[in-house]
Give the backbone structure.
Amino acid sequence: MDDRKFRNAMGNFATGVTVITTEVAGDVHGMTANAFMSLSIEPKLVVISIGENAHMLEIIKTSQKYAVNILSENQQELSMNFAGQIKEEKEVSFDILGGQPVLNGALAQVTCEVVNEYVEGDHTLFIGKVTDIHLEDLEPLVFFKGKYRSLQPVKKAMNV
Ligand code: FAD
């Protein structure tokens, strides 16, 4: 199977965009990620998937905790910063939720403790038990076919 075909197929799945944040010895590290999903309600679990070449991999293995910051539509620049797509080093200030660094202006900030990790292929899945949540009433940043978008209502409302 061709890598490009696989990537193109997966890029057809429209997602939100998150920045995963964590901290080791006072140093905060962030990484843009869309491989995130809700996993269980009781207990409340989420999962993220981190590539084997990402610096974030060893950092979460050490910290054993992370926060998922679901980005709002005006946070594309932050997404690009934490994906390493902007040359100039950007100074980002973090808020604290439940003792963990989180991004101000996110739709949702979800803090977790790592309860399990699974290496699958070239990624590691980190299962996080949710410890705290903060929500804001904002519109999401969307990622589809490798491009950022904003959410639009469907043109024709269904009669339901
Ligand atoms: P680095 O390359 O070390 O850092 C990334 C950038 O974040 C650098 O520019 C750095 O300066 C900046 N940064 C880090 N911490 C701070 C801080 N405290 N203050 C200011 N700036 C900081 N990869 C995955 O593994 N899983 C995914 O689910 C995933 N989804 C993605 C979704 C999208 C939409 C995009 C664009 C990329 C995605 N990636 C994903 C790729 C991933 O974001 C990049 O490969 C990333 O650069 C790897 O992060 P790293 O830990 O190696 O961080």
